[in-house]
UniProtKB/TrEMBL annotation:
Transport listed as a keyword: no
Annotated ranges, domain Helicase ATP-binding: 30-305
Coiled coil: none
Keyword terms: ATP-binding, Helicase, Hydrolase, Nucleotide-binding
GO molecular-function terms, A-Z: ATP binding; DNA helicase activity; hydrolase activity, acting on acid anhydrides, in phosphorus-containing anhydrides; nucleic acid binding
Keyword ATP-binding: yes
Family: Belongs to the helicase family. DinG subfamily.
Gene Ontology biological process terms, A to Z: nucleobase-containing compound metabolic process
Protein name: ATP-dependent helicase
Classification via InterPro entries: ATP-dep_Helicase_C, DinG/Rad3-like, Helic_SF1/SF2_ATP-bd_DinG/Rad3, P-loop_NTPase
Length: 643
């Protein structure tokens, strides 16, 4: 094995690194990998030398490569070599946590590359905070619940977490969602970190799982893998974290790879959101009132608290649920806008009063800093809401509280300044980055003016390996029965993709009364990588999912059928409604492109190797068939037959 930090080829003082890298990559794809049983692929080699130029010139490149081209090997090889050359890790940003697990799973691409090339790759995961158990939430719940899955998690928390006398030498990493695969998604939300947690003032902070895992991945030498959401959170918070004396979420990197990079725009929007929790402002201002402050400040705080309560009541009264989304749509009335303006003005005035209170030296600097930062955050978020057409907003509610979420509509200017001005290589990799090999739409939405691009097709013989059937839905009951028959005829070994969790649950309600000669697995019942592993190993089985349209990699006979239960249009939630509002033809410019992209991604789950084969079944209504049949057929790898 080649030790960490050493290049897998020699570079002398008179050598050019990229010349030697090019020679090595040529040896890998022409000689070493074929000798290890890997197929020589012209598409893979073409993409490799396109990436070499992007790394050499520190450019952004859109590398669109169809299923089976081996694009992951290509970007991994360049990212690792360049990281060792520059002495800084590469960051690989994936669409979500599921894709992270696909990269690092046993038998995954990283392990295959290590074995084939004799490399010892230092790869570490930087997972989103929601992927870690929160002791502040777990401990009190464990003391009052009978839920065995929660108690089992609590029992597995290491002793040092509760032993305040334990030395840091005894600390070990713990708390990753993957360590508790038996916990359902709904239960995990009760014990995992959430945006309402104030980590900076938490007594468990230095013993929390996310803190210990963060310290671990920061020391990676080759690769750090994270989600798009986490990368964007790092970008938006790095300066504020530095001001607070904290390290940024991620270290400086030599390059960044965005796997499934077409999904980056929404992650950027999401990372810039402002979340106004009803309880949070009350807590901050009540804490402010508890300090030795002047009467002017106290009266202003009381006014803000009364307005705030009235405002959230109005928001709830003017909110309506949206199918397929947890974003509750809000109708902005004149009264809501008026109160928002008064709140904004009062918070601005309170910030001025805080300056005078701080000068009295009756409030600790630490408390002044926390109050000031939250009020500035609150004020700026309100300013986005009040500016015409700049913000997207919605309400999120649970059993405990309500949260108003405000998101900027456009992020390209911020991305251009904060991300793509770094002067390092950025690689976008996916099978679906362009519209007919035109990358303009994606590039402009991300603020990228100058870029390289390449597009290579899949090497698979789809005509021989794949059949695609179209089906017309006459009624929901009849559709479920037909899908059930399709599953039985195929003896399971199928992935059923739904457009939303609600649609999956409707199928589940019907399916629970049926007898199946195979295992039925549903996304959300347990940790997702465990569900995928069970599907792959416990043959025959059926995997029902609303999220696994991209990234799922199940080669072999475990998966020989993909059923698309309905055309996957975007939800009618505030984010997509904002997109529709700002286009001349919403159906053509928002709905159809999103749906077609999802179908292309879903179809890509079936054929993963030259040996794979199977059938795709796509369901739609008669009206949808009339409107979209030609559009769908234009992007399919084989002709669709109607059943």
């Amino acid at each position: 094995m080649i030790r960490n930090n050493s290049l897998p080829f020699t570079v002398t003082k008179v050598d050019n690194f990229f010349d030697r890298l090019g020679d090595y990559v040529g040896d890998v794809f022409y000689d070493i990998l074929p000798e290890k049983g890997y197929e020589l692929r012209d598409e893979q080699i073409y993409m490799a030398f396109q990436l070499e130029q992007a790394f050499k010139n520190k450019r952004t490149i859109f590398a669109e490569a169809g299923v089976g081209t081996g694009k992951t090997f290509v970007y991994l090889l360049y990212a690792i070599c360049y990281a060792r050359y520059r002495g800084k890790p590469a960051i690989i940003s994936c669409a979500d946590e599921t894709l992270i697990e696909q990269l690092v799973k046993k038998g995954g691409d990283i392990e295959k590359l290590e074995e084939a090339l004799g490399l010892n790759i230092d790869v570490r995961l930087a997972k989103a905070r929601e992927q870690y158990v929160c002791i502040k939430k777990l401990d009190p719940i464990a003391n009052r619940t009978d839920d065995k899955s929660i108690l089992q998690v609590h029992d597995q928390i290491p002793d040092f977490v509760f032993d305040t006398s334990a030395s840091m030498k005894s600390f070990e990493r713990y708390g990753d969602r993957k360590e508790y695969p038996w916990v359902s998604n709904a239960t995990w939300e009760k014990i995992a970190w959430d945006p309402l947690q104030q980590c900076s003032t938490c007594e468990w902070r230095h013993r929390s799982g996310q803190t210990l895992n963060r310290d671990y991945y920061r020391h990676a030498t080759d690769i750090i893998i994270c989600s798009h959401d986490f990368y964007m959170e790092h970008v938006w918070t790095k300066e504020s974290r530095k001001r607070e004396g904290q390290l940024p979420l991620l270290p400086e990197s030599s390059s960044v790879v965005f796997d499934e990079g077409h999904l980056l725009e929404f992650a950027a929007q999401k990372g810039l959101t402002y979340r106004f929790n009803f309880e949070a402002l009350n807590k901050v201002l009540t804490g402010y009132m508890g300090q030795d402050v002047r009467e002017e400040s106290l009266l202003l705080i009381e006014d803000i608290l009364l307005l705030h309560e009235e405002w959230f009541d109005l928001l709830s009264d003017n909110a309506s649920a949206v199918e397929g989304s947890n974003r509750i749509e809000i109708s902005l009335t004149e009264n809501i806008i008026d109160i928002a303006q008064r709140l904004h003005d009062n918070v601005q005035q309170l910030l001025e009063e805080l300056v005078f209170d701080a000068e009295l030296f009756t409030i600790e600097d630490y408390h002044v800093k926390i109050i000031e930062e939250y009020l500035e955050f609150f004020s700026y978020g309100l300013s986005i809401l009040l500016k015409d057409d700049e913000g997207i907003f919605w309400l999120e509610e649970n059993d405990m509280t309500s949260t108003l979420v405000i998101m900027p509509r456009l992020v390209e200017d911020v991305l251009k300044k904060e991300v793509f001005s770094q002067g390092i290589p950025f690689v976008f990799s996916s099978a679906t980055l362009s519209r007919g090999k035109d990358f303009t739409y994606l590039a402009s939405s991300l603020g990228i003016n100058r870029y390289d691009s390449c597009s290579v097709a899949s090497p698979f013989d789809y005509e021989q390996k794949m059949k695609i059937n179209g089906h017309i839905e006459s009624s929901l009951q009849e559709k479920w029965e037909n899908i059930g028959n399709q599953l039985v005829d195929n003896n399971g070994k199928a992935l059923v993709l739904f457009s939303s969790i609600e649609e999956m649950n409707l199928f589940r309600q019907w399916a629970i009364d049926q007898e199946w000669p195979f295992t039925m697995l549903y996304e959300g019942d347990q940790e997702i990588s465990k569900t995928v592993k069970d599907f792959q190993n416990d043959q025959p089985a059926v995997l029902c999912s609303y999220n696994l349209w991209e990234g799922l990699d199940i080669p072999g006979e475990a998966l020989t059928k993909v059923i698309i239960s309905s055309l996957p249009f975007p939800p009618k939630d505030p984010v997509f409604q904002a997109k529709r509002k700002h286009t001349e033809h919403p159906e053509q410019e928002v709905d159809a492109p999103y749906m077609v992209l999802r179908i292309r991604q879903g179809i890509g789950r079936l054929i993963r190797t030259n040996e794979d084969f199977g059938t795709i079944d796509i369901w739609m209504t008669e009206k949808e068939s009339e409107m979209y049949q030609k559009t769908i057929e234009s992007v399919l790898p084989v002709e669709m037959e109607w059943k």
